[in-house]
Amino acid sequence: MIHFANPNLLYLLLLIPVIGLLFVLARIGRKRKLERFGKPAVIAHLMPDASKYMPTVKIVLELIAVALIVIALARPYSPAPATANSSDETTEGIEVMICFDVSNSMLASSTDDPNGVSRMQRAKFILEKLIDKMRNDKVGLIVFAGDSYTQLPITSDYISAKMFLNSIDPGMVPTQGTAIGAALDMAINSFTPESEFQKAIVLITDVENFEDNPLEAAKRAAESGIQVDVIGVGTAGGAPIPVNITGSEFMVDQNGEEIRTAMDEKLGEDIAKAGKGIYISGSSNSAVSELTEQLSTLAKKEYKRSSAPNPASELFPIAITLALIILLIDMLLPYSKIEILKRFSFFSKK
C-alpha cells in the first residue's frame, strides 16, 4: 500500500479536471469561430498543417505530467514491513524547542564589521550544526519578532527541521519588534503534553527586547522543569540594520540618523540564569559544542519512535522522473501535423 507524507497536497489534483474543462471549452469556442468563415471541410484545405488531434494529445500529456508532479510533492512512500528495522524502535532522548529571533535587527552584522556575516546567518549555522549532532532527541521550532509562530511542532524528523530552519527570514513575522517573553511562553506550551521527557528551550537572539519581561517567562519555564539556554548573536558595539539583501543601504530614524542595534549580553545572561540554563556567545567557535554539552546534562527518556520511510521506500523520484520524461516528449511534439504521419490517413473511410 502507498502512503503519502503530505496527503493534503493531493487536493491540487482537483485542478486537472478544471484545466481539462477549460481546454474543451476553448476548443469548442475555436470551432465556432472557424465556422463563421465557412464550411469546416473547405477551411481545412486552407490550413493543411493544422492538426485535429495534436492539441488534445499535448494537453493530455501535460495534465498527466502535472498529476505526477503533484503526487511527487505529496511524497509517496511504501511503508517498510513490520519486521523491518524501519518500524517502531525504542530509543531515548530529550525534547528541545528552538526560539529563533527573526526581527529586522537580526539582519545586522554579527561582528563589528557592518558588512560581516549577518546575525541570522550566524544563528542558522549554529542551529544547523546543533541539529546535525542530534540523534534521538526531538526538536521543534518557533520564530518570533513582535509576535511568535510555531514553525515546526516537536518532531524527530531532522530533515524537516533543517528545511524549515533554512527558510527562515524576517518576512515570516509581519509584526516587527522583539517579544522574547511571549516566545518563551509559547515554547513552554509546545512540548509534548504530560510527557516525562526532560525539556530545554534554546533561545537564539541578539537580545534586544522591547515588548515584555523575558526574565519572568524564563522563571516560569524553570518552574515547569524546562531549562532555558541562550545563544547571543551580535556585538555590544552594535551595527547598522540593512534594508536590503545587498546591505548597500541601512535603516535611518526620523532625523535621518543611522539606526544601530547592539546585543544586550547582560540581559541574555540574566535570562539564562532565570531559566537555570547557560548563556553562550554566538561568536564563539565552541558555541555548538558548549550547547551540546549543556543539553547532554539532561536525563534522556526512553520512548518508541516511528522511523521515517527509508530512501529505498520513497516513491517520489519515480513520479518526478516520469513527469520529466512526459514533459520532454510534450516539448518535442508540435501542435501542427507531424510530417512523417501526413502520408497516412488513419481515420479515412474506404
List the helices and strands and how they pair.
Elements (H helix, E strand, L loop, with lengths): L2 E2 L10 H21 L4 H7 L7 H20 L2 E2 L10 E6 L1 E7 L17 H15 L4 E7 L3 E8 L2 H9 L13 H9 L10 E7 L8 H10 L2 E7 L6 E2 L19 E2 L3 H10 L4 E3 L5 H9 L5 E6 L9 H17 L18
Parallel strand pairs: 4-5, 4-7, 7-8, 8-11
Antiparallel strand pairs: 1-2, 3-12, 5-6, 9-10
Helix pairs in contact: 1-3, 3-10, 4-5, 4-9, 6-7, 7-8
What does this molecule look like?
It contains 10 helices and 12 strands. Helix 4 packs antiparallel against helix 5 (about 160-165), helix 4 packs across helix 9 and helix 7 (about 215-225) packs parallel to helix 8 (about 265-275). Strands 6-5-4-7-8-11 form a 6-stranded mixed beta sheet, sandwiched between helices. It has a two-stranded antiparallel ribbon with strand order 1-2. The protein has a two-stranded antiparallel ribbon with strand order 3-12. The chain has helices spanning about 15-35, 40-45, 55-75, 120-135, 160-165, 180-190, 215-225, 265-275, 285-295, 315-330, and strands at about 5, 75, 90-95, 95-100, 140-145, 150-155, 200-205, 225-230, 240, 260, 280, 300-305. Helix 4 links the parallel strand 4 (about 95-100) and strand 5 (about 140-145). The chain is elongated and about 90 Å long. The two termini are about 50 Å apart. Residues about 80-85 have low confidence and may be disordered. With about 350 residues, it is of the alpha/beta class.
